[in-house]
Write a structure and sequence with these properties.
heterotrimer; A: alpha+beta; Immunoglobulin-like; 3 domains; 12 strands; C: Four Helix Bundle (Hemerythrin (Met), subunit A); elongated
Chain lengths: 290, 634, 207
C-alpha cells in the first residue's frame, strides 16, 4: 500500500511541478491545447485509474486478507480466556482452570487462544499490536478475538478506546511461553495465596484485611474477597503494577499503596491514612504473594 | 461609483445607496441583515474560536512534548482535547466556510442583493455566537466536556461523567445545530431562487455548486446528531434509558446515530474548500476549469455518497465481516468523485498559465496535503489496516491532513484572495508567501510524524506516555512543528490586520477574477449590484460584452430595481425572471430571538424547567414581533 | 419584464390571486419550508429507526411488565388528524384564488379538529404514563420521546394555524400572508404523514 501511495503522491507532485515549469505556456505537453485531451486526462486519472487501484485494494485487503484473519470458531481454539476491561485495569480470567489475575496474560506460544473481550463499565479496546488487531469491549457484548504468538516473548498491549481519566495508563502484558512453562504458571496461579513469612508480613496481612483493602481486592484463601479492584493473589509474580504504569518493586509498590493518586490521578483506589510502619508491613505482605 | 460615471447612472446608484444603507455604529451591526456584514461578523467570531482551538492544541502539544509531563492534569487534558475537536469543527471551520465565506460571497456570485432570508441569516449568526459562548462557559468554569468530541456512551452517561460538562456540550451542539440548519436552508433557497435572471443552473459558478451540495448534506445530516444528543440529554437529565443496556437500551445506538451525522460532517467540512479552490484556480491560471460539468457533478456526488459510509468508523467494535465489507466498499467509491475534482484542478493548472501568487500557493499546498490525507484515508478502507490503526496517531495524522490541509488551507487562501474585495486594500504579497511556507512546513512537521507514531502503536487521546516506548523523539518534533505552524498563522493574521490599515488600494479586480463579485467595487456597495447583471456563462466577469451591457442598462434605467429594498427571484432551473422581492432591512428580532433561545438551553442545563418554559414563551413573543411587520410595510 | 410582478404590492385578495396565478415557480418561503420539512422528516426517521434498532435486539418487546399499546384510540385519533388535510387543502386552494373568507372558515374548521386531536392525545399520553414511564425501560423512553416530539410538532402547527387565522381575519389577504397559508398547508400534510408513521411505530407490538 505504501508503494502505491508513494507513486500516486509523487505523480501528483510531478504534475504540479510540470505546471510550474510550463507556467508560461498554455496547454498540455504533447497534447497542446485540446480540451478533449484535458477532459480525457481527468477521466483517466480521476476515474479509470483510481477505480482500478481501488478495486484491487478492495479485493486484496477486504476480501482476501479479511478472510484469512477472521477469528476462528470458538471450538477450534485450544484455550479460552476472558478479559474484562475496567477503568483503568484489566481483569483476566481462565474459565477452565478458575484462575483470576490482572494486567498480565500468560499464554502458551504456538497455540490458538480465544479471547472473549468484555467490559465492566465503559467502552475499552483490547489491543496487542504485535499479535492482532484491536477489538472494542462494549457493554453487553462478548466480542471475540484470536491471540496467536509465533514466538515466545512479552508483548505489550494497551487500551485503545478513550475510557476516561487514566486511559493513558491502561496497558497490559501478554507473556507467551513454551507450553510446559505455561502449564507450570497456570498451576501456580490456581493455588491459593502464599502464607505471609515473618512478623512484618503477618502484620501486613492483618492490616490488609482490617482496612479498606479487602473491600476491593481478592486474595484467594484469605478473608479478602472484594471484586472492585484487581485480584492480588499472586501480585508478586507480575512484572508491573497499576496496569503497566510502574515496575513491581517494593519501592514502587510502596509509593503506589501510600498514594495511588500521585501516580495515577483519578484512579479509583483511594489513599489510606495509615502510618509509615503500617505501609511497610503491607508492602512486605504483598511482596510475598508469588 | 466612479467619479467619471455618467450623471444618470450616478443618480441611480446614489438612490440605491440611500435605500440599502444600514445604520452605522454598534446598533447597526447588532440589527444588521446585510449578508456582507453578517459574513464579517461570522468571520471574526469564527477566527476567535480558531484562536481558542489553537491554544487548546498548543497546550496539548506542550503537554506531550516529553514523557510523563505535568503541564496538564489528566482532567485538564481530557477537557482540552474534547474542546479542541468540538471548537475546530463546530465553532471554527463550519462557521468560517459557510457563515463567513458562504454568506459574504454567495449572493455576490449569483448577482443577488442579499440572501433569500436576511433576518434568518442574522439569526444564524447570533445563535452561533450564543452557542459557542454556551459551550465555553462550561470549559471556563472548569466544567468542560471531557469524553472526546464524539462523546461515546457509556463514558458520556451520567454514571461515568457526573458533572455538567457533557450537558454543556450536548445542549450547546443542539443549539448550534439550529444555526447551521437555518444557514443551510437559506443557502439552498438563495441558490435556487435568487440567481440573476439569465443564470440558469449550468451558468452558476462551481463555488455555488459546492455550497448547494454542502447545504443539502447539512439538511439531512444534522437530524441524526440532534436525535443522538436529545437521547443523551434525556438519559442524563431525566433518567431515560436509550443508551442503558440494563434497561433495554444500546451503547452502539449512539455510535450509529453519531456517525450517520459524523461522516457526512467531514464532507461538509471539506466541500466549501473545494468550492474555494475552484474559484481561485481559474483566476490565477487564467483559463476556465477543465471538465466543468464533471467537477460540478463530483461535488454533488461527494455529498451524496458520504451518507453511505458511516460504519467505517466502527470497524473495531465487532460488527460482522459482511457489514464491514459493504462499508469499506462504499468508502472506496467515494474516492472517485474526489479524484475527478483533483485531476480537474491539476489539469487546469498544467494547461493554464499559473501565476504563483499567495492565494494559488495555498491551493497548491491544499492539493498536496489533500492527496496525502486522501491516501491515508484510503488505507483505512482496508479493513485489517483500520482494525490495527484506528484510535492511534495514524488516524490523527489522517484527519489533520484532510481537515487542516484540505479544508483550512483553501480557507486561508480564500482569505487572501477575497481580502481585497472585502476591504478594498491589498495585502503584502511577500509576507503572504512567507506565511504560506511557514504554515505548510510547520503543518507537515507537526502531523507527518504522527503516521509513524501510529504505526508504532501510540494510541490517541493519551495525556502522557512512558519514556521507554520510543515515542519521545517524534512527539518532541511534532510539538516544535506545532509552534512553527502557529507562527505561520500569526503571520497570516498580522499581514491581514496590518494591510487593513496600510495596504495599497486594491481596485475592483486586482487578480482578473472570473466571477461577478469582481465586477463591483471593493468593498462592494450596500446594494451589491446596480442593475440585474447580464449572465451568459459561469465566468461572468470574463464576459466583457455582458459587463458593458450592464453599464448601458444602468444609464438607461433598465432592471435597476430601485422602488424599494428589492432583488429579483427567478425560476429554479432555467433562471427565468419570475418576481421582484422586497427584502427586510435592519431588525432587532434576530439577536433577541437568539438570546431567548439561549435562555431556554441554559435553564434546561440547570434543570430549571419553569424558567425554561418562561423563555419559551419569550421565544413565541419575539417570533410574533418578527412576523408582525410584512414586506409592503418595509 | 412586464410579466414580472412586484409581489409585495399585492395587499388585497384580488391582486394576490393575480400574483399567484402569474408566478412560475414556488415562492422562496415555500421552498424554505419544504427543506425544513425534509429535515424534520429525517428527525422522525432517526427516532423511528432508533425504535426498531432497540427492538431488534430485545428479547421481549414491550419488556415484561409493560402493557402492549392499545390500538383503537390512537388509530382513530390519527384518522381524525389526517382527515383535516381535506379542509386544509381546500382552504389553501381557496386562498390561492383570493376567496379569503372561504379559506378562513376551512382553516378554522381544520384548526378546531386539530386542537381537539391534540387534547385527546395529551389525555391518552397522561393515561399511559400511569401504566409505564420513560424511566421504566428503553422501550418507554423511545415510546414517549417519539410521541412527545410528534405532539410538539402538532402544537407548533396549531400555533401557526392560529397565527394565520388572526392575520386573515377580516379578509386581509396579502401575498405575504398567502405564502403563510401555503406553508401552513405544507406543514400539516407533513405532520399528518408523520402521524401515520408514528402511530404505526407506536402500535407495532400490537399490530
Amino acid at each position: 500500500m505504501l508503494v502505491v501511495a508513494g507513486i500516486i503522491f509523487l505523480g501528483t507532485l510531478g504534475l504540479l511541478i510540470i505546471g510550474w515549469l510550463r507556467r508560461g505556456t498554455p496547454g498540455l505537453p504533447f497534447f497542446g491545447q485540446s480540451e478533449r485531451a484535458n477532459v480525457g486526462l481527468v477521466i483517466a486519472f480521476g476515474m479509470a485509474i483510481p477505480a482500478t487501484v481501488l478495486i484491487a485494494l478492495f479485493i486484496v485487503s477486504d476480501l482476501y486478507v479479511m478472510g484469512q484473519t477472521d477469528a476462528p470458531p470458538a471450538d477450534q481454539t485450544e484455550l479460552k480466556l476472558t478479559v474484562v476491561g475496567h477503568q483503568w485495569w484489566w481483569e483476566v480470567r481462565y474459565p477452565e482452570s478458575g484462575v483470576v489475575s490482572a494486567d498480565e496474560i500468560h499464554i502458551p506460544a504456538h497455540t490458538s487462544i480465544d479471547v472473549v473481550a468484555r467490559t465492566a463499565d465503559v467502552i475499552h479496546s483490547f489491543w496487542v499490536p504485535e499479535l492482532n488487531r484491536k477489538i472494542d469491549m462494549i457493554p453487553g457484548q462478548n466480542n471475540r478475538i484470536e491471540l496467536y504468538a509465533e514466538r515466545p516473548g512479552a508483548y505489550r498491549g494497551q487500551c485503545a478506546e478513550f475510557c476516561g481519566l487514566q486511559h493513558a495508563h491502561m496497558a497490559f502484558q501478554v507473556v507467551a511461553e513454551p507450553k510446559a512453562s505455561f502449564e507450570r504458571w497456570l498451576e501456580s496461579q490456581s493455588r491459593p495465596a502464599a502464607e505471609p513469612t515473618g512478623a512484618l508480613a503477618e502484620r501486613g496481612m492483618e492490616l490488609f484485611d482490617e482496612n479498606a483493602c479487602a473491600g476491593c481486592h481478592t486474595i484467594a484463601g484469605t478473608p479478602a474477597e472484594g471484586t472492585i479492584g484487581p485480584n492480588l493473589t499472586h501480585l508478586a509474580s507480575r512484572g508491573t503494577i497499576a496496569a503497566l504504569t510502574v515496575a513491581n518493586t517494593p519501592h514502587e509498590l510502596g509509593r503506589w499503596v501510600r498514594d495511588p493518586q500521585s501516580i495515577k490521578p483519578g484512579a479509583k483506589m483511594p489513599g489510606l491514612a495509615l502510618t509509615d510502619a503500617d505501609f511497610h508491613a503491607i508492602v512486605a505482605y504483598l511482596d510475598g504473594l508469588r | 461609483m466612479e467619479a467619471t460615471a455618467p450623471p444618470a447612472s450616478r443618480t441611480r446608484t446614489e438612490r440605491l445607496e440611500r435605500i440599502w444603507k444600514e445604520p452605522s455604529g454598534v446598533l447597526g451591526w447588532i440589527t444588521t441583515t446585510d449578508h456582507k456584514r453578517i459574513g464579517i461578523l461570522y468571520f471574526f467570531t469564527a477566527m476567535t474560536f480558531f484562536a481558542a482551538g489553537g491554544i487548546e492544541a498548543l497546550l496539548i502539544r506542550t503537554q506531550l512534548i516529553g514523557p510523563n509531563n505535568t503541564v496538564l492534569s489528566p482532567a485538564e487534558f481530557n477537557q482540552l482535547m474534547t474542546m479542541h475537536g468540538a471548537t475546530m469543527i463546530f465553532f471554527f471551520v463550519i462557521p468560517l466556510s459557510t457563515g463567513a465565506f458562504g454568506n459574504y460571497l454567495l449572493p455576490l456570485m449569483i448577482g443577488a442583493r442579499d440572501m433569500a432570508f436576511p433576518r434568518l441569516n442574522a439569526l444564524s449568526y447570533w445563535i452561533f455566537l450564543c452557542s459557542g459562548i454556551f459551550v465555553y462557559v462550561g470549559l471556563l468554569t472548569g466544567n468542560g466536556p471531557s469524553a472526546g468530541w464524539f462523546d461515546y456512551v457509556p463514558l458520556a452517561s451520567k454514571t461515568f461523567s457526573p458533572g455538567p460538562g457533557i450537558d454543556f456540550y450536548a445542549l450547546g451542539l443542539i443549539f448550534n445545530g439550529i444555526s447551521t440548519l437555518a444557514a443551510a436552508i437559506n443557502f439552498i433557497v438563495t441558490i435556487f431562487k435568487l440567481r440573476a435572471p439569465g443564470m440558469s443552473i449550468n451558468r452558476m459558478p462551481l463555488f455555488c455548486f459546492a455550497f448547494l451540495a454542502v447545504s443539502f448534506a447539512l439538511v439531512f445530516a444534522l437530524p441524526p446528531l440532534t436525535v443522538a444528543l436529545f437521547f443523551l440529554e434525556l438519559d442524563r437529565l431525566l433518567g431515560f434509558h436509550f443508551y442503558d443496556i440494563f434497561r433495554g437500551g444500546d451503547t452502539i445506538l449512539w455510535q450509529n446515530l453519531f456517525w450517520i451525522f459524523g461522516h457526512p460532517e467531514v464532507y461538509i467540512i471539506i466541500l466549501p474548500a473545494f468550492g474555494i479552490a475552484t474559484s481561485i484556480i481559474p483566476t490565477f491560471v487564467r483559463r476556465r476549469m477543465v471538465a466543468f460539468p464533471l467537477v460540478a457533478l463530483a461535488e454533488i456526488l461527494v455529498a451524496l455518497i458520504g451518507f453511505g459510509v458511516w460504519a467505517h468508523h466502527m470497524f473495531a467494535i465487532g460488527i460482522s465481516t459482511i457489514t464491514a465489507i459493504y462499508f469499506a466498499g462504499a468508502s472506496l467509491i467515494i474516492v472517485i468523485p474526489s479524484a475527478i475534482q483533483l485531476f480537474a484542478w491539476i489539469t487546469t493548472i498544467v494547461t493554464g498559465m499559473p501565476r504563483f501568487k499567495t492565494p494559488l500557493l495555498w491551493i497548491i499546498g491544499f492539493i498536496v496535503l489533500f492527496v496525502m490525507g486522501g491516501l491515508s484515508g484510503v488505507m483505512f478502507a482496508a479493513i485489517p489496516f483500520d482494525q490495527q490503526l484506528t484510535d492511534t496517531y495514524f488516524v490523527v495524522a489522517h484527519f489533520h491532513y484532510v481537515i487542516f490541509g484540505a479544508a483550512v488551507f483553501p480557507l486561508l487562501g480564500g482569505m487572501y484572495y477575497w481580502f481585497p474585495k472585502v476591504t478594498g486594500k491589498m495585502y503584502y504579497e511577500r509576507w503572504g508567501q512567507a506565511s504560506f511556507w511557514l504554515t505548510f512546513i510547520g503543518m507537515n512537521i507537526t502531523f507527518f510524524p504522527m503516521h509513524i507514531l501510529g504505526l508504532d502503536g501510540m494510541p490517541r487521546r493519551n495525556y502522557t506516555y512512558s519514556p521507554d516506548l520510543g515515542w519521545t523523539g517524534l512527539n518532541l518534533i511534532e510539538t516544535l512543528g506545532s509552534y512553527l505552524l502557529a507562527m505561520g498563522l500569526v503571520v497570516v493574521a498580522v499581514n491581514l490586520i496590518v494591510s487593513i490599515f496600510r495596504g495599497e488600494p486594491a481596485g475592483d479586480d486586482p487578480f482578473g477574477g472570473d466571477t461577478l463579485e469582481w465586477s463591483i467595487s471593493s468593498p462592494p456597495p450596500a446594494y451589491n449590484f446596480a442593475v440585474l447583471p447580464t449572465v451568459s456563462s459561469p465566468y461572468a466577469n470574463w464576459d466583457e460584452e455582458d459587463r458593458k451591457l450592464d453599464k448601458e442598462k444602468l444609464e438607461q434605467g433598465i432592471e435597476v430595481l430601485d422602488q424599494g429594498h428589492e432583488t429579483a427571484a427567478s425560476t429554479v432551473v432555467d433562471g427565468e425572471w419570475d418576481e421582484i422581492l422586497e427584502m427586510p432591512s435592519s431588525s432587532p428580532w434576530p439577536p433577541l430571538l437568539a438570546i431567548a433561545l439561549a435562555g431556554i438551553f441554559a435553564m434546561v442545563l440547570l434543570k430549571l424547567w419553569l424558567a425554561a418554559a418562561f423563555f419559551a414563551v419569550l421565544v413565541g413573543l419575539v417570533l410574533v414581533a418578527w412576523h408582525g411587520g410584512e414586506p409592503q410595510e418595509a | 419584464m412586464s410579466d414580472v410582478t412586484r409581489s409585495m404590492e399585492a395587499t388585497a385578495p384580488d391582486p394576490t390571486a393575480t400574483v399567484e396565478r402569474m408566478r412560475r415557480s414556488m415562492p422562496s418561503g415555500w421552498v424554505g419550508a419544504i427543506l425544513l420539512v425534509a429535515s424534520e422528516a429525517c428527525l422522525f426517521g432517526s427516532l423511528i429507526a432508533s425504535y426498531f434498532y432497540l427492538r431488534f435486539d430485545a428479547s421481549s418487546w414491550p419488556p415484561d411488565g409493560t402493557p402492549a399499546p392499545s390500538v383503537v384510540l390512537p388509530l382513530a385519533f390519527t384518522a381524525m388528524l389526517v382527515a383535516t388535510c381535506v379542509p386544509i387543502y381546500l382552504g389553501v386552494r381557496a386562498a390561492r384564488v383570493g376567496a379569503v373568507r372561504t379559506a378562513w372558515w376551512l382553516i378554522f374548521l381544520a384548526t378546531g379538529v386539530q386542537a381537539t386531536y391534540l387534547g385527546l392525545q395529551i389525555w391518552l399520553f397522561v393515561e399511559e404514563l400511569a401504566k409505564f414511564t420513560p424511566r421504566s425501560s428503553a422501550y418507554g423512553s423511545n415510546y414517549y420521546a417519539l410521541l412527545g416530539v410528534h405532539h410538539t410538532h402538532v402544537a407548533v402547527g396549531l400555533a401557526l394555524g392560529l397565527w394565520v387565522l388572526a392575520k386573515l381575519f377580516g379578509g386581509r389577504l396579502t401575498n405575504y400572508r398567502l405564502n403563510a397559508v401555503r406553508i401552513l398547508g405544507l406543514y400539516w400534510y407533513f405532520v399528518s404523514a408523520m402521524a401515520i408513521l408514528v402511530v404505526i411505530t407506536q402500535l407495532w407490538p400490537s399490530l
